């Protein structure tokens, strides 16, 4: 069977994934689905008491979107590792674009793998989450 990932090279960009603007409904649905009902993400009064102007997105929501970016590019079964660093708050109204770029091709545990740098960026160019993944391509 033909493997479309066999021709991956350093510098290749993953197809971008742009999500609708963050809204309260998305936060409530993600909170219920994930079990993360921290009120800072769904209760404006709580968020304001904590010193925030309003609720904001769960960090794991952004990571989930990066997971979707990766699994749109390669089958989930090829994902060998995936980690992120939360670098900024994703506020209501932010339009998030998930991006990925192949930074290395290497043999890892006997498999040909691509290291992919990933990030979520809002409409103002601010990086909210950055990380990398290792994807088997051979």
Automatic annotation (TrEMBL):
Q: Name one Pfam family in it.
A: MaoC_dehydratas
Report the CDD domains cross-referenced here. Answer: SAV4209_like
UniProt-listed Gene3D superfamilies: Hotdog Thioesterase
Q: Where is the MaoC-like domain?
A: 22-118
Q: What is this protein called?
A: MaoC family dehydratase
Provenance organism: Pseudomonas schmalbachii
């Amino acid at each position: 069977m033909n493997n479309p990932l066999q021709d991956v090279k350093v510098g290749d960009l993953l197809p971008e994934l742009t999500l609708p603007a963050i809204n309260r409904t998305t936060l409530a649905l993600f909170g219920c689905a994930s079990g993360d009902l921290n009120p800072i993400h769904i209760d404006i009064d709580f968020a304001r008491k904590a010193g925030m102007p309003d609720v904001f997105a769960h960090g794991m929501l952004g990571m989930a979107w990066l997971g979707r970016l990766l699994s749109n590019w390669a089958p989930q079964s090829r994902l060998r590792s995936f980690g992120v660093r939360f670098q900024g708050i994703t506020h209501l109204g932010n339009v998030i674009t998930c991006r990925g770029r192949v930074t290395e091709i290497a043999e890892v545990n006997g498999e040909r793998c691509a290291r992919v740098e990933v990030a979520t960026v809002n409409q103002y160019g601010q990086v909210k989450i950055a990380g990398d993944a290792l994807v088997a391509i051979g």
